[in-house]
Design a protein that fits this description.
The protein is of the alpha/beta class and 295 residues long. The protein has one domain (3-81, 142-293). The chain contains twelve helices and six strands. A hairpin with a 3-residue loop joins strand 1 and strand 2 (40-47). It starts with a helix and ends with a strand.
């Protein structure tokens, strides 16, 4: 489950994302598509939620799409001025009575790793026992990233939301916070356990793999992103269905319906949703909607 940090970053899941460095000498050309009819243009831009400092990703083609769009649509809106609101949503779903201790939810071979991780993060033993397994995993991941000095202020969504807000342009969402956390909350326990196992991997062990993902995204190599997700999700079909397939289907329907309204908008979602046979573009094409790659 080494894909957990890099994978959720490329899916745009705000609650848990990884970071790594990538070669800066390569030309930045992250993939951008267009869906259009006679009076509507919808740009589709795949994002990475967390990026290294000064990482290059803005291009003239993308800037033109940003400038020409009247609205920005992201996966979900998290208000940085009121993080307690999102935390409250998560806590409402995350806690259940009668749960076994977190240690007992892992295979015996993984329990020492969990103990060591909690100690390194300064989390008292038993502090996460009241949380469902998926929530404990996301809490550990978030603290792992903070300890490593990795934040989301460089992430594509954060920057785009800041720019659209400064320009007085509306920002909308495809999912509420409740819906996004709900995808985790409804996972079967074995899938939640896989998330927990992934959360206690050492961050340094994930940097190489995430760096490869980040490099592929930067150069617009959608095929490489798709191969990575196909390989990793083959081990976790329930996660693929909950975090990728069902959401892609929802968004493809939303885009099809949005074409009935005139205007130009930018839809920015995790790059993993715009790669592979089950991507949003593939689903749109199945519906007879033309998708043109611009970059």
């Amino acid at each position: 489950m080494k894909w957990v940090q890099r994978g959720l970053a490329a899916l745009g899941i705000a609650a848990a994302s990884g970071c790594a460095t990538a070669p800066q000498e390569q030309v930045a050309r992250p993939a951008l598509w267009q869906v259009a009819d006679k009076d509507t243009t919808i740009y589709l831009f795949g994002t990475i939620h967390v990026l290294p400092d000064e990482h290059s990703w803005r291009t003239p083609t993308l800037e033109k799409a940003i400038a020409g769009s009247t609205d920005l649509i992201v996966e979900t809106i998290i208000d940085p001025s009121n993080p307690q609101k999102t935390q409250a949503v998560m806590l409402n779903l995350a806690q259940s009575p009668g749960l076994p201790p977190l240690q007992q939810r892992l295979p015996e071979a993984k329990r020492a790793d969990l103990t060591a991780t909690l100690a390194q993060l300064g989390i008292p033993a038993g502090a996460l026992d009241r949380f469902e397994t998926w929530a404990a995993a996301l809490i550990i991941l978030q603290l792992q990233l903070q300890k490593a000095g990795l934040e989301s202020d460089n992430g594509v969504e954060f920057v785009l939301k800041r720019d659209f807000a400064a320009a007085g342009k509306p920002i909308g969402q495809l999912e509420t916070n409740e819906e996004q956390f709900g995808f985790f909350d409804t996972l079967p326990e074995d899938s939640q356990r896989l998330l927990l196992e992934g959360s206690i991997e050492r961050p340094e062990e994930l940097r190489t793999e995430f760096g490869a993902m980040l490099a592929a995204w930067t150069r617009g190599d959608v095929a490489a992103i798709a191969r990575s997700f196909n390989r990793e999700f083959s081990e976790a079909p329930a996660l693929e269905d909950a975090l990728l397939k069902r959401r892609n289907a929802n968004w493809a329907r939303w885009i099809e319906q949005r074409l009935a309204q005139p205007g130009k908008i930018l839809v920015a979602v995790g790059a993993g949703h715009l790669a592979g046979d089950t991507s949003v573009q593939s689903l749109l094409k199945e519906r007879g909607i033309k998708v043109t790659r611009l970059q």
